[in-house]
Amino acid sequence: MSTPAKNIRIMCPNLKCRSILVVPETARGKNVKCSNCATLFKIPVTAPTPSPAGR
Ligand SMILES: [Zn+2]
Fold this sequence. Notes:
Elements: E1 7-11, E2 20-24, E3 31-33, E4 40-42
Antiparallel strand pairs: 1-2, 3-4
The protein binds zinc ion.
Zinc ion (ZN) binds next to loops.
């Protein structure tokens, strides 16, 4: 099976917004704009994925 482009979910850093934005994984390290509050922020390369089996 081919691996489709994953999407990552990231919370808007604007404390008054905190919307969950879904962006493609290829957007890591790039700037995105929140569609809700228009805040421009950078997606961290290591996205905070909710993995329960962490170290
Ligand atoms: Zn926002």
